[in-house]
Amino acid sequence: MEEGARRHRLTGAAVPGAEGEGRYVAVTVHDREHEAGHVPGPHDLPATAVVLSAGGLWVLYATPLYGLTTTSPTAYTFVLVHLLLSGALLAWVLAGPDPAPHRPGTTPRLVALLVSAAAHAVLAKRLYARAGEWPPAAHGSVERGQEAAQLMYYGGDVAELLLAALVLRAWYVRAAPRAVPAAAAC
């Protein structure tokens, strides 16, 4: 195949004939997933979304960035926007509406969700265990830090279960057997 040429796949459908007999009609469909020159973007890769979302949380809480957000409205706004956008990207990559162009299969999306959930849970447990001294430059009581870590831990569980349900629902809808109309069964 020459470079820049589009790949196509052959698909078909049963169409009832004049006498009620089914005929098979072939249709050529452009296959966008194999388009020459396609470069995966961040919306194509679950790993990118996990690094931006969970990695962003680790950078926020494991560095003095958290302390900076308590004193600088600009830093606070930047971090808040980053966390909202990276979380939205993660949710869209994992369970966004189908059909999404170049979306990976169910298994890579579930693996990404498990990695993200593990990173989130470990961070929340670390914040709980080291409340009062972690995050660096945080000002607050141990009890308040532990309450925030518990909220992060259990709130993350709820969000992760909802995302898993959406990913598995989309898989089930795609994999469920379809009813064949009586006319097409001939």
Explain this structure:
This protein has helices at 46-62, 65-71, 73-95, 106-129, 142-175, 182-185; strands spanning 8-16, 22-30. With 186 residues, it is mainly α. Strands 1-2 form a two-stranded antiparallel ribbon. Helix 2 packs across helix 3. It is elongated and about 70 Å long. Mean pLDDT is 77; it is low at 1-15 and 24-34.
Label this structure with key terms.
single chain; 186 residues; mainly alpha; two-stranded antiparallel sheet; 59% helix; 10% strand; elongated; disordered N terminus
How many helix segments? 6
Write down the Rg.
24 Å
Strand order of the largest sheet: 1-2
Q: Structural class of the helix and strand makeup?
A: mainly alpha
- The coarse silhouette is elongated
N-to-C series of helices and strands:
EEHHHHHH
Strand-residue proportion = 5-15%
Mean pLDDT: 77
Distance between the termini: 38 Å
> What count of domains describes the coordinates?
2
Helix content: 55-70%
Biggest sheet details:
2 strands, antiparallel
Number of strands: 2
Uncertain parts: 1-15, 24-34
